[in-house]
Amino acid sequence: MIDFELPEQIVAAQKETHELAVKHMRPVARDYDEREHEKPWDYINLIWEDVKKEVAAQLQALEQTDAERAEAKKKSLARAGGQPMILTAVLSEERAWGDAGLNLCNPGPRLGGAAVNAVGTPEQKRRFFKPFTEGTPKWGAMAITEANAGSDTAAITASAVRDGDSWVLNGEKIFVTSGKMACQESDGWVVVWATIDKSAGRAGIKSFVVEKGTPGMTVTKLENKLGIRASDTATVVFEDCRIPIDNILGSPEVQQRGTTKGFKGVMATFDATRPGIAASAIGIGRAALEFVKEKLAEKGIEVRYGISPYQMTAVEKEIHNMEANLKAARLLTWRACCMLDRRERNSLEASMAKAKAGFAVTNICQKAVELMGPLGYSREYLLEKWMRDCKINDIFEGTGQINMLIVARNVLGFGRDKLK
């Protein structure tokens, strides 16, 4: 028999995080939505202590032998890269249920840390993660997207040129989540994707860590957004930005054209981050669905279960469909997470989870607003905000269309050259 119950340790952490969302996120969600770019410092400072402990545990795991790591995993559900991904997903869902914008304000290595974990050496992990175990809140960010290189990362034009014991970066990156906090407001850093050999195509793209205060790195713009307004989304420009030679993640070697070995190492970042984005989407969808059911109950409208579809009202059918899609997205997400925890390749499953969650939750939130009518459209409630917040989950970390392409290529066994 397949058991879908979560372990006791994860259930306990889930309940604790839900309480955090109820007490410290929901009450201020509207306020920070209306005051875009202002940071919820009370919330940030509250969770910073937990972030420091998590990163410290991750660094401690780096020092363990294989036998010690295996024993620790049995006792605490921890994996070599830190807390298990399934736990990360469960907690992300709860925080997004509280507020997606505030959730994206969380300090820590975050997306940049996922890139360091995927490609960096043990020494680089120690060096770049250590600051996150001490002092005041810090952020890690990841800079990929360019004006002419969105979903097609192979079109990246930002460049890195070797000059003695340094790399010199030039280019502009847009839509950098927490870019201002990582590059300007804290002692953080940003992982920048750039090409070191344009003639090598995708194989020439590498990732570099650029630390806050590095001359030549400038935050030039903050986006005004439809949703997730508490989170800053920045444009960062690199002009003759000189960084140490060992700030390149992984090997600087470029494979011959036609191979993507180095690029695949960088893309492994998405295998780790896409399930987390899917979990965040699920949290928003769950919030919207619970709101609808609560308002229906207040009006004495019961949603019945265990009856024939032919006996259901139109509203009941809609609710059942919303619930089914939400649960399907969650199970796909948990599967992708569990595979990552077992160190199995999860590229297909991560893209399936991300595509399903983004599409399903966008439709769930839209349907919730539709069912509630004026109540759903009114700013008196958070439902209209959840509809605005949810859409980004179908866009960043690879659009729904791109993830469906990845799924199709994996299922059909087609390469990028055969299915675009």
Account of the 3D structure:
The protein is of the alpha+beta class and 420 residues long. The chain is built from 15 helices and seven strands. The protein has helices at residues 8-24, 26-34, 41-62, 66-76, 85-98, 100-103, 110-119, 122-129, 179-185, 261-298, 314-341, 347-372, 374-377, 383-390, 400-412, and strands at 140-143, 159-163, 166-177, 189-195, 205-211, 217-222, 233-244. The strands form two sheets. It has a four-stranded antiparallel beta sheet with strand order 2-3-7-6, with helices on one face. Strands 1-4-5 form a three-stranded mixed beta sheet, with helices on both faces. Helix 1 (8-24) packs parallel to helix 5 (85-98) and helix 5 (85-98) packs across helix 10 (261-298). The radius of gyration is 22 Å and the shape is globular. The model has no long low-confidence stretch (mean pLDDT 91).
Could you say what the CATH topology of the largest domain is called?
Butyryl-CoA Dehydrogenase, subunit A, domain 3
The biggest sheet amounts to: 4 strands, antiparallel
Distance between the termini: 40 Å
Mean model confidence by pLDDT: 91
CATH superfamily of the largest domain, by name, is Butyryl-CoA Dehydrogenase, subunit A, domain 3
For the structure shown, list the relevant keywords.
420 residues; alpha+beta; Butyryl-Coa Dehydrogenase, subunit A, domain 1; Butyryl-CoA Dehydrogenase, subunit A, domain 2; Butyryl-CoA Dehydrogenase, subunit A, domain 3; 3 domains; four-stranded antiparallel sheet; three-stranded mixed sheet; 7 strands; globular; flavin adenine dinucleotide binding; acyl-CoA dehydrogenase activity; oxidoreductase; FAD
